[in-house]
Amino acid sequence: MNFIDSVNKTFTLVDFERNQNLPVHSTFHLQRIAEFLDSISNPHLNIPTIHVAGTKGKGSVCSLIASILTKNDKKVGLITSPHLHSVTERIRLGSDPIDENDFIELVDELWPKVESHNHSSSFGQLTWFEFMIAASFYYFKKCGVDFQVVETGLGGRLDATNVVLPIVSVITSISLDHTKILGETIQEISFEKAGIIKAGIPVVLSPQKFDEARHVITDVASQRNSDLLNVSDLYHVENVHNLRTSQIFDVKTDNISRQFELGLLGDYQIENALTALGVVSVLRHSGFEISDDSISEGFNQVVWSGRFEYLSTINDNFEILVDGAHNVYSMECLAQEIKSLKYENLIVIFGALGSHDFKGMLNVLNSLDPILIGVHSRHPKSIKSSLIELQLDDMGFRDQFFFDSVSDGFDYASNISNKGDLILATGSLSVVAEVIESHKKMVPELYQGF
Predict the structure, then answer these.
(1) Could you report the per-residue pLDDT of 31-54, keeping only the tens digit for each?
(2) What is the largest CA-CA distance in the chain?
(3) Which residue spans of the chain are classified as CATH 3.40.1190.10?
(4) Which numeric CATH code is attached to 309-440?
(5) 291-304 per-position pLDDT tens digit
(6) In whole angstroms, what is the distance from residue 9 CA to residue 6 CA?
(7) Is the per-residue pLDDT at 26 higher than 60?
(8) Helix (H) or strand (E) holding 99
(9) Rounded to an integer, what distance in angstroms lies between the CA atom of residue 266 and that of residue 163?
(10) CATH code at 3-301
């Protein structure tokens, strides 16, 4: 098999990320993946694990932690989702996606186990996400990683990653998202995220916009006798200087001040960096040696694409910025960042998935007075641009254009942009990915049936 054949084989499993029919959350459980992991000798156990849940920033926090540990000369397995361009991005050593040949070998080795499980399991057939999580653990065990950093897919309590026994749990900023699955209120969503907290295992909590989230996490940690490190209480940021591709800031704690240069842009990325510092503090307290230099180098050289990322300009005429904001709170944070920038005209390429509050996001974007270009990405759950158009009648965008593909929308945005203009692509990571692919002339990874 070639690589795409191998990927398509995995997609014969049910994939709820791309399936239009959402499962009922109450039907989620951990028994099926636990049973499969047991059949392959439980590779997820006995490796120091950092488990990260949250609504916003969890992928960035994972990449920052992995970057620090890698700079500390540790071999680090990193699990994140979704991917931008290739499924290999979900299984990384450090920042490097699994090699395509290694992925083929991994599928070949595990597939007989998958077929045996699916034939005999009393809990039903393995899902695609469950397979990818199990395959990641299996690969990391084979590679002899020193740590594994694991991002939840959806929620936490019933997420397939919640089979791990972490040395530290991390909960990033929580806001309303996936409400049809996780709950309609901040309290309900926070309870699902708090499901990753294990008895007696320390928890690092990112700064929270909503008091309700902080209260729920604090209560659950207390009930499970888990020490809670609240980043907002421990660290204070001063003297932020924004550069073109990084930002410099000072962090004060216990009357000690340190300066860092972070290779990620946006105020929210500083909050994510503070969360990573909190994780380092817990690891050090647990006996792991992590040098100050590895923190500085890890922050400076971190790689995490698609989040407030500038793409190279075209003939220096205009700039292109991509950001995967896909809920109202993330869009509000992005809008705040955009308001601090200088540009002539703002041209927004916007597309969203049907499970997200795209009308709420559009309301936030309207405050920036942009030229709006509605697009439809390749993602099976992407809303059609005609549906975006239907929602704009009473919003008052000054100019509106609509395209059936992201590449066509990006081409049009490029054609109408002039010197000093800013093109912003946002609304979903699928839109961001396709703009990056169009700009860099990348050949997209296309899957059978999608």
Answers:
(1) 999 999 999 999 999 999 999 999
(2) 63
(3) 3-301
(4) 3.90.190.20
(5) 999 999 999 999 99
(6) 5
(7) no
(8) none
(9) 33
(10) 3.40.1190.10
